[in-house]
Each structure stands twice: as structure tokens, then as C-alpha cells.
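[Solved] Which block belongs to which protein?

Original post:
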Amino acid sequence: MLKTSKRATIWATLVAGMIWALTPLSAKAEIELGQLRAGLPNTVVLTLNGSFTDDEILKFKSFISDLPSDKRIVVLLNSPGGSVEQGQSLGRYFYDARITTVIFAGSKCQSACSDAFLGGRDAVTKQPLRILSTGGLLGFHNFRSVGVPEKPYTKADMEERSRMAQVATYQWLEYFESVEVPLEAVLLGLGTKAEDMFHIREADALDLGVSILNTQTGRLTSPNQLTKRMRTGN
């Protein structure tokens, strides 16, 4: 297990190695995957940029299939969202494969991308590790219906819509639990209009198990450190 000082040095190196290589990524219609040379030992840094449609999990698995199995993977996410199913599938895979997720300064990860981001995990400690950099945006919103016809709705129609919302909420809760995210996270979406986007503050992100990377100093603030301090205080 890496000591805190060593982990801070590693992430400072990550910042220094990528600032020159990265410009703010523009979200494109389809997912694009790339690889950066960040100079980190035994680590592969990938970029995932664009909207989630219907086969992102297959694209990602195919992309990393040739990477050495002894290398840990860090993924930089920049996406306005898209398919919730694909976002959660990616998040589950990130968690199972112990892939760290990062939102870098100038990038945004919204809607379904936030689900994928929350699946990040540390390859060494096996603890959740999803990192929001200062200057990055992590966004949530409520359910959004697509392709719903404009027509008079009967009581049965409304009951079916209510049932679908309940199922979606349950799936969301089950997903968060499976990737070790506090279930309060679901309220971030439910408390926001479907057409709006709520960007979480960095201090609040810590409460959701998200680490904060200061891109100026390279300092990584871990929610685990804060939790230990609170337990010690009790």
C-alpha cells in the first residue's frame, strides 16, 4: 500500500506530466479513446472523450485488450453524458478492473458520465478512487424521458410512467451500492430538473467518496483521510 506522501508525489507527477499534453477536451458526438504519455511508472493513462451511445463498454474493452495486464490504468473522462446503461456498464467495469477515474481541469463529466466516473477504484489499495480536479465539472440531473409522444395521458399511462421511474431509481441505488458510493448521491439527480444540470461543489464531492486533486499544488485530498479523522475524534 502506498503511503500518503508517496501517493501525493505520484499525483503531482501526473499533473505535471499532463498539463503540457492536455488542452480542454471538447465533447464530440461519439466516444473517442486515446492514450497519454504521463511519465508515471507502471501506469497507463487513457482519455475518454465524447457522448455515450450504445457500445462504449465494448469500445473500451477492445481498446485496453492489448495493454499489459500488470499496468494500472487511469482514465480521464470528458463527456456530456448519454446512455445511462452504458455509463453504468463502464462504471461497473472500472470498479471490477480497478481502474482509476479522473476529471481533469477544463473537462466535464455529466449525466451518464458521472455514473461511469463513480466506478473508479485504486489498483493497489482496491479502495474507491475517483478524482475530481479543481477546474473540472461533475454534473448530475434527474431522469430524462426521450421520445415520449405529446398526447393526453390516461391514469394507466401515468401509473406506468411512475413504475418506470421507480425501477430507474432502484437501478440507480443498486448501482451506487455496488461501486461503493453513498446512496445519498442519488438525491443529486432527483433534486434537479431533467433539463438542468447540477455541478457538485468540490467540498461536497468529498462526502460522496470523491478525491479532490489541486491542479496548482498536486495535492490529493482523500475522503478516506477525513473519515479516519472523524472516527478518531469519536
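(Second protein starts here: sequence line, then its C-alpha cells.)
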Amino acid sequence: MKLKDKVALVTGGGRGIGRAIAEGLAREGATVAVNYSQSREGALAAVEAIRARQGQAMAIQADVSAEPAAQAMVRQVVESYGGIDILVNNAGVSSPAPFLQVGAAELRRILEVNVAGVFFASQAAAKAMIARGRGGCILNVSSLVASRPFANAAPYNASKAAVSALTQSLALELGAHRIRVNEICPASVETDMVRLTLKSPQQLAHRLATIPLGRMGQPSDLVGAAVFLCSDDASWVTGASLVTDGGLSVIPPFGRPA
């Protein structure tokens, strides 16, 4: 197993991509702390699924956008398992709306969770990793929209661009402590967030027409990329961005070839 004896913390691990990654890391031998803010039932279900495979896991409630809560979350992992080796920053929010209709409160909410949450959790985890002296790995779940924005998602687009900038900044500063920092950039993955934008068969058909692999991605499709970047197989990889989008980003402006 690639992650035997490692301790991982996955934020927003109660559903969607976060849950798939949490369970995937556990299958590779990691002990996993599943963070949630509101989806307690999902986090507990993820923990039970991990334990059913004889893995070790626990659920931790914390709003990562609040610095004290993020610090307490990491502290609980360290106290429970003796340290932290892997942090997966997956927690994120979005609410599709035209730019001209986005209010200040919603802008702040998205930036606080998607950007400040990554910052606070990464800072707390990095300090714990440095104190332990064994290095570590931080994996950020960004998005293709960091470089190719979608319409009606300006705050979300901006937040993911900030996550990509943070990924490279942290890789630069934390490398001396043997902490690797990378990101995956998914798109067209069937999660609750994406389903909001695909409410009709026509919208789904249009989305599928932009994906060379011809189907929507599933959260499980991202597990291999996450495990690779969190494992020693990627020991010489930091500051990297791995696009996981079914080929959407290579579609030329005039559409797919016939």
C-alpha cells in the first residue's frame, strides 16, 4: 500500500470529491481524519466505510474558514494520531449567479471558505509537519476554472485561481521543510455543486459535447491522481497542477472534431 503508516486529513470529506479521496487514501493504508462543516451524516458514513475495510478513521467538525477552528482541527488530528503527514484541502462552496447579481455577503462566503480555508488549514498543518520533522504533503483541490473560467461563477473562478497561486507559493516556501504542495484541477465531475448547473437534459448534452472522453467524471475518477500526488511516487513533484477533466481543456474553440 502506497500510504501505509501515513496520517491524512481531508477537509470537506463528507461528500463528493472529498469523500472519494478520503476513502481512496484509506484503501492505500492511510489513517484518515474526515473533516466536515455541515454534512455530518456524510462524514460519519465515510468513516464507517473506511472502518468496514479495517481502516482507521474519525470525523472532525470544523469550519475551515475560521482560523481558530482550522487550528483546533489539525491539533485534534495530531493529538489523536501522533502527527499529520497529508492534508487534502477539498472543502469548497459555490453558488452560480451572473456577476452583476453577486452580493458582497456571497462573495465573502466563497472567498473565506475556498481561499482562507485553504490558507488556514495549510498553515496549521505545515507547522505541525515542521515540528515533527518528517516532511509531508499538501494537496489542494482547485479547478480548471482557475485558468479557464466558466460563466456565472466569477467569485468561484477567482477563488480557485487564488488556490492555484497559493499552491505554487506554498511549494516555494515549504520545500525547505520537505513539504510538497500540489493541486488537482478537476472539471465536469458529477458532484452536488456541478448538478446545480446541469438541471436539464439540454444542459447535460451541451456539457458532454465538450468532453473528449464522452462522459461526466465521477469523484472516484480523481482518486488515482490524489493518491499519486500524496504518495512517495511523487516524491520529486511539488508546485504541480494536474488537470483531471476528461479532456475538456483541450477542446478547440470551434468544438470537437467530427
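Accepted answer:
You had them paired correctly. Confirming on the second one: Residues 104-132 form the longest helix (29 residues).
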